[in-house]
Write a structure and sequence with these properties.
It is a single chain. It is built from 10 helices and 8 strands. It is of the alpha/beta class and about 300 residues long. The chain starts with a helix and ends in an 18-residue tail after the last helix.
């Protein structure tokens, strides 16, 4: 009996020791497209043909929950740093935490997946293109090879596509996060459920399509995983509370090795985004993270 137990324990040790060494990245590139203010409430009636097509090409949920408060800063941060607000201290759109975070990097910032990239894969290209300037407060720009804020985005709505495609085709980044602000602007200006909001949705859908065409033009599409996500919804002209219209957001993922036409049934919260990105790129995550990998891979 002792020999059997010893052999069993040795086998367990061999499996546990060999697993990290044998685990590999699931794709060579991850492109995240964040649609600010894209709430689940608009999905039934909205016109978004390309995103609908990609939902069939990959996996999706309409039940991703935000972290509270349901504002941009807290939620974009959680997607990148893998932690809830209680840990990060990021409770508003201020670049500085409201209270002392539980853990900070040498940059006095949260360990985002960009930080993990520079720590574990320093030679790899990663960058951000955004329309909301404060987005950069949460990405840790010291860990980025490239970042660009599109100024006056409402007057130049196609610049986000031009800049994103230029960056992707020229640099072929391993990790790229693109932030599009148009829907949030419509929600604040005209209100949740307004004609103006619904009219903007197909325009944003077309920008997403053009960015994906840029990934194809770069020659990296077949070895990429692409995600579309959101920070919050709206109720009336606002967000920041805990109404269902504010806290429920969509998530779509497709690409290399992702299950097709698959509805995600498991629970998903904003910080699960970070864990999922890290798993795709085979990044070791810090103990401070609380996100879980969304299992959508074949």
């Amino acid at each position: 009996m002792k020999k059997i137990l010893f052999a069993f324990a040795a086998a367990l040790m061999l499996v546990s020791c060999s697993e990290p060494a044998t685990r590999k990245e699931l794709a060579s590139h991850v492109i995240v497209i964040g649609l600010d203010g894209w709430g689940t409430w608009c999905m039934e009636k909205g016109e978004y043909p390309f995103i609908r097509e990609m939902m069939q090409e990959g996996s999706w949920t309409l039940n991703k929950r935000v972290v509270l408060p349901s504002i941009s800063g807290a939620n974009w941060a959680a997607m990148m740093n893998g932690t809830p607000v209680e840990s990060s201290g990021i409770t508003n759109n201020d670049p500085y935490p409201t209270f002392e975070p539980l853990y900070l990097t040498q940059h006095k910032a949260q360990p985002t997946f960009f930080h993990l990239m520079k720590e574990q894969r320093p030679a790899e290209e990663c960058g951000v293109v955004c329309e909301w300037g404060d987005f950069l407060n949460y990405a840790d720009t010291l860990c980025l090879d490239y970042y660009k804020r599109i100024a006056n985005a409402s007057q130049n709505p196609d610049d986000i596509v031009t800049e994103s495609v230029k960056y992707i085709t020229e640099k072929k980044p391993v990790l790229c996060f693109i932030h599009i602000d148009a829907l949030d602007h419509m929600g604040h200006s005209y209100g949740q459920g307004s004609e103006e909001y619904y009219a903007e949705l197909p325009k944003v859908d077309e920008r997403v399509r053009q960015i994906v065409e840029g990934v194809k033009a770069a020659g990296i599409y077949d070895d990429s995983i692409i995600m579309i996500t959101s920070d919050h919804g709206h109720v009336g002209h606002h967000h920041g509370g805990h109404d269902q219209l504010e806290i429920q957001t969509p998530f779509v993922i497709w690409g290399k090795g992702v299950k097709k036409n698959h509805q995600i049934k498991e629970t998903m919260i904003q910080y699960d985004m970070a864990a999922t990105v890290a798993r795709i790129l085979n990044l070791e995550t810090p103990q401070s993270w609380r996100g879980k990998v969304i299992e959508v891979f074949e």
